[in-house]
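Running this now, will post back.
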Amino acid sequence: MTVPVPEVLPHVDAVEAALALSALTIYVGGTPTDSGWKRPDKYAVLYPDPGMALRESLADKRTDFVLTFQVTCVGSSVERVLWVADRVRRALAVPLTVAGRACWRAEELGGPPVDRDDDVTPPAWFLPVQYRLQSTS
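Update: finished.
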């Protein structure tokens, strides 16, 4: 019996869905670049890596999966960026649902302190936080 190799996209979709349920505006991989885009006063950007399919044993069955991702929280003030960070943390505090897989709760890996971006007008504050999500079949 061949065990399917875990895929990254269903895991990213699960993270995005959990964040969207928290009343957050979510972008994946960056914000829109079209000239008509108006920056919201608070939002989050999800930056996933490709993940890693890991062996469960010497039999080389690649059933375990680890995804590391960053959620960059952005706000028009320090208070708004911390509000976004709280919503992200709350959304990822429960096990996520990925079809055909059992997921651990996302592990928060931390990040740097809140910083201000003066290269945009008006200035914005941002806070990148990294997480790790693991699943098995």
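Residues 8-136 form a domain with the STM4215-like fold (CATH 3.30.2000.30). More later if anyone needs it.
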